[in-house]
Design goal:
Elements (H helix, E strand, L loop, with lengths): L43 H9 L7 E9 L2 E10 L2 E7 L6 E6 L4 H17 L3 H9 L7 E9 L2 E10 L2 E7 L6 E4 L1 H24 L1
Antiparallel strand pairs: 1-2, 1-5, 2-3, 3-4, 5-6, 6-7, 7-8
Length: 207
């Protein structure tokens, strides 16, 4: 998880919240969209229910499609006594195949008390924002849904596939209102693009 803290779905999608320059524009939701992982039978909601049995009462803060050792898994994160616990589930069977603590840098660790406090005071749950996101995005394009702190407030971050790239958007976790583009996701995309261009240049030099 990034402090503002991660497969494939080559579908173009934009959020259905709000509109305007550099904002998502409204688009119909395909209720029958294919899951983001090929062959996936487990929904985000079902994965969360299974994972929550491992840490009853602990707030879940993130769910995403992640690649581990070349295999796509569903990752669910919980905040447990100041530690982020990561569970990786097989997307077909729901079996928990990997369990570990997330390694955090200083900035990420310092954010956890604020996250725990605002989760408690808001009453917002990951189950709530999964339903909110899935009612507004093409389900088959969603890569990640996360509750995090941005500029001192609790937000819902959603990452979706956009062609061969990904887009990140921040929303109010209670209303779904768009707060803006996820700057960190945009920065990561720019960095990946620059690295790809550099790799192509280097390759051309060696030919």
């Amino acid at each position: 998880m990034a402090p503002r803290v991660a497969l494939i779905a080559a579908l173009f999608v934009v959020p259905a919240f709000g509109c305007g320059k550099d904002r998502p524009v409204e688009t119909p939701v395909d209720a029958g969209a294919s899951p983001a992982v090929e062959g996936q039978s487990l929904s985000f909601t079902d994965a969360l229910k299974i994972a929550a049995e491992k840490y009853p009462g602990a707030p879940a803060i993130e769910i995403e499609i992640e690649t581990v050792d070349g295999k796509q898994l569903l990752e669910v994160e919980f905040l447990v006594e100041g530690v982020i616990k990561e569970l990786y589930l097989d997307p077909q069977s729901g079996e928990i195949v990997v369990e570990k603590d997330e390694e955090l840098d200083e900035e990420e660790a310092a954010m956890l008390p604020t996250l725990a406090e605002q989760l408690g005071s808001s009453g917002v749950t990951l189950a709530d924002v999964i339903a909110l996101a899935e009612s507004s995005y093409d389900v088959g394009s969603i890569r990640e849904i996360e509750l995090e702190i941005s500029d001192g407030r609790l937000v819902m971050a959603v990452e979706v596939a956009d062609g061969d790239a990904t887009k990140g958007w921040l929303h109010d976790p209670s209303t779904g209102d768009v707060l803006g583009e996820d700057a960190e996701e945009a920065d990561e995309a720019d960095s990946d693009e620059a690295e790809g261009e550099q790799a192509a240049t280097d390759s051309g030099k060696t030919e």
